[in-house]
Amino acid sequence: MDCTNFIINDHEPFALDNKLVDVRETLSHCSLSHVLVTREAQYLGALSETDALCLDPNMTLSDVQYALTPFFVRAQNSWFEILEAFAQHQTNIMPVVDAQGLYQGYYELSDIMHLFHSTPFLSAEGVVLIVGRKTNEYSLAELTQIIESNGGHLLGAFVSEQNNDLTRVTLKVSSETITFCIEALRRYGFDIISVHEKDSTLNQLKERSEYLDKYLNI
Questions:
Q1: From CA 203, how far away is CA 209, in angstroms rounded?
Q2: Domains, the chain, ranges and CATH?
Q3: pTM assigned to the model
């Protein structure tokens, strides 16, 4: 899924000679969690709204360059890698930087969340399973093979919990042969932790993703 069409430049990055009072003025008119800072076209990092509001407004960004966090993604990163970066850095703006460190624009969290909502994992009909297995015995390839060899179609999967002892995987499977798939998973040593028909778990996942969107936009 190509995300580059979502790269935007509505907000220009700040320069090091800009004062924090200018940053505050911009933040007062938008809901950005960070502002982005460049030197000419070279990306330097992001300053959080919290720092911008706490530090002396008469200081320049050069004075507080130590507070910049240099998070970014590349244009070739997948939507999932981009979403992961948003969550990891608790931001709603994600700069895009090329291999030479040049600033290309940025993604907004709401656009990437829209892509997530449109994936088959959330939008297609199916049954959501949560399965578990000892971590040293877990294999996603084996899990996929079991589902597909029993007539199931895997619509999506992610590791929802993992430690040294246990790995839990949440997966969505087409419902036509779900009984055969569950029986086969048990035969091959997977624990069936929960089975959810269509809407209830799907709605929960949508609600949680929407909550993440709202949380990161606070």
A1: 10
A2: 4-116 (3.10.580.10), 126-197 (3.30.70.260)
A3: 0.67
